[in-house]
């Protein structure tokens, strides 16, 4: 089915203000001195992460690393088995880590990923997601920082895609099917 962009669900202004609030929460919890490793899960989290880290104070000890994973399954349902396409560059052993995701849906990708990262013995492991589609949850995942709860609608923009498209939008928008001619 073909889709087209529809309404703005979350505006760029609302996103920017929530990103600043989340950054402030992170600073409060982590303090300025302990090294903090921000792990972005490609591709969706890239846009959110780059805005988030630039809201952290200059003298905070922040490192950035990325992982690229995909959940096995069909187009609409993930299986919870995660395949790593690109792993972290650096060890997270003994480090304070925050995993950054764009969206949590079933929770299967994140719960599998967290088990995998726990096995690498970080000092702490937290989760920061921009969007929480809780109505779709199949397994509980603790979200330490969460931007917005969203209804079960198809959303794109600000990192989120449909078939690889629309990640570059400044706002988060819904999509609707293009009427057959
Ligand atoms: C999205 C999102 C999460 C996962 C959430 O990634 O970034 O990793 O799906 O779904 P779940 O909670 O049902 O497991 P996607 O596989 O679409 O890859 P992308 O980040 O490259 O868009």
Arithmetic mean of pLDDT: 93
**End-to-end C-alpha gap:** 13 Å
**What proportion strand?**
35-45%
Low-confidence stretches: none
**What characteristic shape results from the CA principal axes?**
globular
Q: How many helices in DSSP terms?
A: 3
Bound molecules: 1-O-pyrophosphono-5-O-phosphono-alpha-D-ribofuranose
Structural class: alpha/beta
Sheet with the most strands: spatial strand order: 4-3-2-5-6-7
Number of strands: 9
The secondary-structure element order is EHEHEEEHEEEE
Percent helix: 10-25%
* Rg over C-alpha atoms, rounded to the nearest angstrom: 16 Å
Largest sheet: 6 strands, mixed
Descriptive account of the structure:
Strand 5, helix 3 and strand 6 (about 125-130) form a beta-alpha-beta unit. Helix 1 packs across helix 2. The protein is globular. A 6-stranded mixed β-sheet has the order 4-3-2-5-6-7, sandwiched between helices. The protein has a 3-stranded antiparallel β-sheet with strand order 1-9-8. It is α/β, with parallel strands linked by helices and about 180 residues long. The protein is about 20% helix and about 35% strand. It has helices at about 10-30, 45-55, 110-120; strands at about 5-10, 35-40, 60-75, 80-85, 95-105, 125-130, 145-150, 155, 170-175. The site of 1-O-pyrophosphono-5-O-phosphono-alpha-D-ribofuranose has 17 residues, from strand 3, strand 5 and helix 3.
